[in-house]
TrEMBL record, chain B:
Primary enzyme class: oxidoreductase
Bilayer-spanning residue ranges: 6-22, 29-49, 69-92, 104-122, 128-148, 160-182, 205-226, 238-258, 270-293, 300-319, 331-349, 370-400, 406-426
Organism the protein comes from: hydrothermal vent metagenome
NCBIfam families attached to this UniProt entry: NDH_I_M (TIGR01972), PRK05846.2-5 (NF004505)
Listed name of the protein: NADH-ubiquinone oxidoreductase chain M
A Pfam family: Proton_antipo_M
Domain NADH:quinone oxidoreductase/Mrp antiporter transmembrane as annotated: residue spans: 125-414
Gene Ontology cellular-component terms listed: membrane
Subcellular location(s) of the protein: Membrane
Keywords: Membrane, Oxidoreductase, Transmembrane, Transmembrane helix, Ubiquinone
Family recorded in the similarity comment: Belongs to the complex I subunit 4 family.
Length: 631, 511
């Protein structure tokens, strides 16, 4: 079994190194094939481990070697395969394998094809470390590792120029990459502080030791640790106010968006909360805050998706919104439901992004859905895939999203947090609307792309086949709900709806469904026949506010980026040069000048010397008198 | 080899003297050979070092002026061992990568003398010998900056020399006073640091002496607000000068705090925690901001150096093994990474004769290998886990958290603002389209440059993934030092602050 653990973990690493060997040479298709095979090996190992954990009910714990040992701190490279991590491993490797195969087709004209696979596999490796580690420091390795890979991949087309925010809200891939890295770093500081709190209060960073020691800690320590760790989670999972990087990250190649910025990395924050559930379940206030923030983000992101015209950004907003749902569930204590939505979301959201990639491929990288329309003729399979994924996202039965999202909304009702429940229900309607607005504008109605001289074509067959596992899972994953609950609640606390909720569950489900169907119907009526632009609406204040992301990126630029640059400039030119350094030089100049001045005393003239001698004597005399008077 | 330390100190100097008769054409090869032998000797030192022993090893003691207790007294422990290794390594690598051709023979000889003084500082256990090497190290650097530097080289060299020299004079006064006190108490003269350790001084004496040593060390580190000589020195120095300066010479200051201030004045050190932490945090944040404002790549790295030294200072005053071991480790990490970064800036300077970021852009597509190595060093510099930069920074912040959570949070902003200036530098120089015609035909790393940088990359990864071989001996010596400090401290505050690890080996035996 240990071998399987190492295969699951290191096959992506091997893949990354292999691809890196060819990183600077021109495209070699076999690099992509080998990388995909290694990823598939990792998936198989993960699946076998999942089966093992399923049958035996016991986790596997391996310790590879020591990492950092100083003072009383000992951090090993240790990995744990239990119900939670094996779920993550299977989901991550499955989506990664699909994305790798997909990328062979998607990136086939890119001159940096090999380099791409190297980064992509390195990302999977980091993600596996993140989910498999048996301690917080190991988690942090993966945490930062995925951050760097995300930086590399967002900025993959680094040669593009910076443009104004009006022209491209992300400015440029390299700008978006830096933004993502720096924003995540802000959150990482919180995470590090969380680690320090735990270490100095518990004396270890191992999960089992820390969780066992939690009951002995005071409430304020627990709260501080929970807040600090959650700040870390906010960065990776792009929660408000650290959310702007996620949509800008869409500058990366689309397979990257599917894998990193939808299915895996951004769910790391949710994973952290689920993993540290013993801590978060002991801090109800912090958990409630998490749920409230999650609900807010769910709504907030969905509102921005309503009016956006950029295919990928719409999906990115929907990811943000769904992450909010997951946090809502985790914050309300329904950890297994959060994990279930995480897995289901990974499948249908990756599918949605890959579908968007097909559209981009066909449309020559055009992303504006107002310029598309009627693509269903040319791209039947992509239409089906994206339709299925959108149905799942909208929460229409029997698709996966229905089961997982419905459970979250029901939890909000069950906890008596009716306010959250209302927002989540409304958001479900909005989700359905923007998903189908996008689907209809892309695939139905008049063929607006013709005006731009584009001749769309369907994606390669093998790519479409590679996407099929995700499509199947997006359809059927929901039926596994009972089995999944049974499996993960061996480790996670079980969550049951109260008797009262149980009675109402049918009605609650129908309410959510009504909102979802309503959203779809609205989208159908407005956009199915084609695009009729409503200038008055588009010029309204609300529309502009939403389209400009509530002007938050502009605000950040005005109150953070620019002042920081100005302050730095001032620190350098005014403080460092004119005060600190000038003082030093001033002292030196004073010494030099006084030496220069006193040099003039050395005239060689005897009477001059006698004069100075007299001055000196008087001076000494005065000092002698004064000191005699006071001492 | 019982006299391995003497050999390590004087081999480069003697080889340097012999260098005068070496032919100019072969001076470079000669220098590299000598530096390589020196490096291998230091590796040998490491292998024969007993990692389980926390005290001084390979001790050599020859009285020079017995009447005044001055002796030729050398030894290494876990703290100094790896700094010596780093010094010899960086000298070797720096020499290998050197692109200077003008007066190459003088340069080689100067570097070999510099190597002697650097190794000398870190092995000396006698204050006078320490002081001699400490001051002597200024001379070769003065010459390197003054003779091979940029347009403002004389100003920069003189500033560097006078500034640090002034500081060390005050330190010398401190040393003489310690010896005087020692004489008063015991009736004999001694300048042996290990003898001084045994001295339990009243708190007010400790404070004054701490201040005297502080001036000498702080200017060298350089701590805010004594740092302004550094940007000039780096700005004007040739690449090799910057590499050695950043990698090794700055470490003399922080090493001094660990070797002298902490064990000799434990109570004063504890009292100084807050003032020093305040200065360090100003240093971390302020210089990181100044680094962000720079237009010149090399100045960014120079200011970032100051910022990282702030982290090291903070760790030293954490008063627990996590922080101090992390700090010593960070000295090595900073040496390797900043050395490599200065070499990398040198690479582009050799090609374009400018270091202004505005002159570049899109270098990643013209010089991919260069971009990869720069990227790795950048990530090490911002403290990415599994690179050498993380281990030290993490331990320092972890250690200092025990002292003050709020100040740690402030110091921790270094992981954010560090990323800001480094990523901005990388974006400006390496990303975007190639706009400048002159950059379109640049050649990627030559084999000479590759061979000097790749070993550093390997070390960065190796010590990031498996720091134990280096960290364990450091940690042993640090734990022993802390146990000693705790036993020696007079005030209750100091005893409370100094945290002795539960796993300390040979307790109290620092000598």
């Amino acid at each position: 079994m240990e071998t399987l653990v190492y295969i699951a973990l290191f096959a992506p690493f091997a893949s990354s190194l292999f691809a890196a060997l060819f990183g600077m040479s021109p495209k070699q298709t076999f690099v992509g094939i080998v990388a995909s095979l290694l990823l598939f090996a990792s998936f198989c190992a993960s699946a076998m481990l999942a089966f093992h954990v399923w049958t035996t009910g016991a986790g596997i714990h391996v310790t590879m070697m020591d990492w950092i040992s100083a003072g009383d701190l000992h951090i090993p490279f240790g990995f744990v395969v239990d119900q939670v991590s094996v779920t993550m491993m299977t989901v991550v490797t499955l989506v990664s394998t699909v994305v790798h195969v997909y990328s062979i087709g998607y990136m086939d004209h890119d001159k940096s094809f090999n380099r791409f696979f190297s980064y992509l596999s390195a990302f999977v490796f980091s993600m596996m470390i993140l989910v498999m580690s048996d301690n917080f420091a190991g988690l942090f390795i993966g945490w930062e590792g995925v951050g760097v890979c995300s930086w590399l991949l967002i900025g993959f087309w680094y040669h593009k120029e910076d443009v104004s925010r009006e022209e491209n809200p992300s400015i440029s891939p390299s700008w978006a990459a830096n933004e993502a890295f720096i924003m995540n770093r802000i959150a990482d500081l919180g995470m590090l502080i969380g680690l320090f709190i735990l270490y100095w209060n518990v004396g270890s960073l191992q999960y089992d030791v820390v969780f066992a020691a939690l009951p002995d800690l005071s409430g304020s320590v627990l709260n501080a640790a929970a807040i600090a760790l959650f700040i870390g989670a906010m960065g990776k999972s792009a929660q408000f106010p650290l959310h702007t990087w996620l949509t800008d990250a869409m500058e990366g190649p689309t397979p990257v968006s599917a894998l990193i910025h939808a299915a895996t990395m951004v769910t790391a924050g949710v994973f952290l909360v689920i993993r540290a559930n013993p801590l978060f379940s002991m801090t109800p206030e912090v958990s409630y805050f998490i749920a409230a923030l999650g609900t807010f983000v769910a709504f907030f992101a969905a509102s921005m998706a309503l009016v956006n015209r950029d295919l990928k950004r719409i999906i990115a907003f929907s990811t943000l919104s769904q992450l909010g749902y997951m946090f809502a569930a985790a914050g309300l204590g329904a950890y297994w439901i959060a994990l279930f939505h995480l897995a289901a979301h990974a499948f249908f959201k990756a599918l949605l992004f890959l579908g968007a990639g097909n559209v981009m491929h066909a449309m020559h990288d055009e992303l504006d859905i107002f310029k598309m329309g009627g693509l269903k003729k040319a791209m039947k399979w992509t239409y089906i895939y994206m339709g299925v994924a959108s149905l799942a996202l909208a929460g229409i039965p029997p698709f996966a999203g229905f089961f997982s999202k419905d459970a979250i909304i029901e939890t909000a009702f069950n906890e008596g947090t009716l306010f959250l429940w209302v927002i989540l229900v409304v958001t479900a309607g909005m989700t359905a609307f923007y998903s189908f607005r996008q689907v209809f504008l892309t695939f139905e109605g008049d063929e607006r792309y013709k005006a731009f001289g584009i001749h769309p074509h369907e994606m390669y067959k093998y790519v479409l086949i590679a996407m099929s596992p995700l499509a199947i899972l997006a359809v059927i994953a929901g039926f596994a709900q009972g089995t999944f609950e049974h499996f993960v609640t061996k480790l996670l606390p079980d969550y049951h709806m109260s008797e009262h909720t149980h009675h109402l569950s049918m009605m609650l489900g129908l309410i959510v469904l009504a909102f979802a169907v309503g959203g779809i119907v609205l989208a159908y009526r407005k956009y199915y026949k084609g695009l009729k632009r409503d200038k008055k609406l588009e010029n309204s204040f609300t529309y502009k506010l939403l389209a400009n992301q509530y002007y938050i990126p502009n605000l950040y630029e005005a109150i953070i980026t620019k002042p920081y640059a100005m302050l730095s400039e001032m620190m350098w030119k005014d403080v460092d040069m004119k005060i600190v350094d000038a003082t030093v030089d001033g002292i030196a100049k004073f010494l030099y000048k006084s030496g220069d001045a006193s040099r003039k005393m050395q005239t060689g003239n005897l009477s001059n010397y006698l004069n100075w001698m007299a001055v000196g004597s008087v001076f000494l005399l005065v000092i002698a008198v004064i000191s005699a008077m006071f001492v | 080899m019982e006299n391995i330390l003497s050999i390590l100190v004087f081999f480069p100097a003697i080889a340097g003297l012999l260098g005068f008769v070496v032919d100019k054409e072969s001076a470079r090869a000669y220098g590299i050979t000598v530096a390589a032998i020196e490096f291998l000797l230091s590796v040998w030192l490491w292998f024969s070092f007993d990692t389980a022993n926390a005290g001084m090893q390979f001790v050599e003691l020859i009285p020079i002026i017995p009447d005044f207790g001055i002796s030729y007294y050398l030894g290494v422990d876990g703290i100094s061992l790896f700094i010596i290794l780093m010094a010899t390594l960086m000298t070797l690598i720096g020499m290998m990568s050197m692109s200077i051709t003008e007066n190459i023979k003088n340069m080689i000889i100067t570097l070999l003398f510099l190597e002697m003084t650097m190794v000398g500082v870190f092995v000396s256990l006698d204050a006078i010998i320490f002081y001699l090497f400490w001051e002597l190290s200024l001379v070769p650097m003065l010459y390197i900056i003054g003779a091979w530097g940029g347009p403002l080289r004389v100003y920069a060299a003189v500033k560097f020399f006078l500034y640090t020299f002034t500081g060390s004079l005050i330190m010398l006064v401190g040393m003489l006073f310690v010896a005087y006190v020692y004489h008063n108490l015991t009736g004999v003269w001694s300048f042996a640091i290990t003898d001084w350790y045994a001295l339990v001084l009243p708190v007010n004496y400790q404070l004054w002496l701490f201040a005297a040593f502080f001036v000498g060390f702080a200017i060298k580190v350089p701590m805010f607000p004594f740092h302004t000589w550094l940007p000039y020195a780096h700005g004007q120095a040739p690449t090799i000068g910057s590499v050695i300066l950043a990698a090794v010479l700055l470490k003399m200051g922080t090493y001094g705090f660990v070797r002298f201030s902490l064990p000799m004045f434990p109570d004063a050190s504890v009292m100084a925690i807050m003032p020093i932490a305040a200065l360090s945090i100003v240093m971390i944040i302020y210089t990181a901001m100044v680094a962000y404002a720079q237009k010149d790549m090399k100045q960014v790295i120079a200011y970032s150096s100051v910022s990282h030294m702030g982290i090291i200072m903070l760790g030293i005053f954490a008063m627990n093994a996590e922080g101090i071991s992390g700090s010593v480790f960070q000295m090595l990490s900073h040496g390797i990474v900043s050395g490599a970064l200065f070499m990398l800036v040198g690479v582009i300077y050799d090609r374009r004769h400018t270091k202004l970021m505005s002159e570049f852009g899109g270098l990643a597509s013209v010089m991919p290998k260069y971009a990869v190595i720069f990227g790795i060093m950048l990530m090490a510099s911002v403290g990415l886990p599994l690179t050498i930069g993380f281990v030290g920074e993490f331990l320092v912040l972890l250690g200092f958290y025990h002292v003050s959570p709020v100040l740690t949070a402030l110091a921790g902003t270094s992981i954010i603002i560090g990323a800001i200036y480094m990523l901005t530098l990388f974006k400006k120089s390496f990303f975007g389209p190639v706009t400048n015609e002159a950059n379109k035909t640049l050649k990627d790393l030559s084999s000479k440059e590759t061979w000097s940088l790749v070993p550093l990359v390997l070390i960065v990864v190796w010590l990031g993934v498996y720091p134990k071989p280096v960290l364990a001996p450091i940690d042993n010596s640090v734990k022993a030092m802390l146990a000693f400090m705790d036993a020696k401290a007079i005030t209750q505050e100091a005893k409370d602050m100094i945290k002795v690890s539960k796993t300390t080996l040979n307790r109290g035996e620092v000598k």
